[in-house]
Amino acid sequence: MTSQNPHITSGNPRSRTALRRLAGSLGWWETLTTPGPPRLLAVNALAGACGSGLATVCLPLFAVRVAGVDAARLVTVLSLTAGCELLAAVPNGALAGRFGVRRFIVTAKTAQAVLWIAMAFAHGFWGLLALSAATGVARAGGGGLSQSVTAAVLPSGARSEVLGSVRALRNVGYLVSGALGSAMLTFDSPWVLRASLVVNGLSYVCGTVCMALVDARRARRSPGRTDFSVLRDAPYFGLILCASVFGTSLIVLDVGLSLWVLRHPQVPRALVGVVLVVNTLVVVVLQHRYSRKSAELDGARRSIRGSVVAFVAMAVLIGGTAEVSTPWAVVLVVAAAVALTFGELYESPAWWTISFELSPPDRRDEYLSAFDLSGATVGILGPLALAAVVALGTLGWLLYAALFVVAGAAALALITRRTRSPAGPVDTPDPKALADHA
């Protein structure tokens, strides 16, 4: 007997339509499911975040319980690794400019896969230090170079949206890896801890395959001159410093707020984990949409202004929890987390556009790799800076707010100077011309 209800024979089309609309509103879902270079870039980002997030959760316990490295020496390992990444960013950009950015990324990811799998079987301080430092060198400049590949294989109008999808998918990966890492730690087994590092190595294998398959033909030879003159480009280097200030926002919740609640018991400690998860989920849902606002340089300027307002509000709100009761502290922290999240949604795509548009077209690989110095700087100095903010109390948060105002004003002034300078880039080349660097 044939049903007269079409919803019974083939499922509920309204439900399917609603799901498609929900997935389409995320933006990154379409990127992830549509064949072509954007999907390869998206899978690379998702796999990388899953692997690195899992390693971040499990590495400390692995080092102490399996590799025989105490907590103090582990801090030394992590600090030296961050230092190696900082020092290698510009040289890696020079190498990528000479030999081809895609070829360099494939080589670097292959090296990281081997190093992480080897690290799973390392023992002792010196072995762990050598392998970890080598991963820092291989990782250096990777974010900027991936942006260069994105520009080479996509039309200019699609670049910001795909980069927004990439950031959203990284947050998806961190959510997955956080949950998986917590589950793995419950087993308290050396082999489970080793497996977490092996999985990270395999995530780099996946990334290697994705980047090797990206279609970015070499139209002409890369420029022969590769040097460190990017560090003498004062306006661009100033933008890197400004981006470093904005980048500290990424560790406010898990470092700054965590330290703050230890000194102020009226702020519930459980609130830190809650707002961190909510922050990640909001970025997953909205980052693709907000990336469109910064697709052009004028939009990036507006986004910088918006992020300054949001970050100032965040800092003032957290500082205001010092002398209030618990209910008001909860309200202020939640409001601060909302402000912080919207600041991040604005500032990340803004810096993608700024770093790209204001780099010389014939030196783009080197410049974008150098721009990753901002991330490495945050990794080294960010926790110390936020610890100082917390130590100063409410005054510290007010000074932190003022620092965002100064960095934002400086960035806008440098952008104006750069765009008006005869030496600054004026026109963005056709994406096909960019493929020679891939």
From TrEMBL:
SUPFAM superfamilies: MFS general substrate transporter. The chain crosses the membrane at residues 41-62, 74-94, 114-138, 191-214, 235-261, 267-286, 306-322, 328-346, 367-391, 397-415. It comes from the Bacteria. Its main location: membrane. It is a multi-pass membrane protein. It is found in: Cell membrane. Keywords: Cell membrane, Membrane, Transmembrane, Transmembrane helix, Transport. This is MFS transporter. It comes from Streptantibioticus silvisoli.
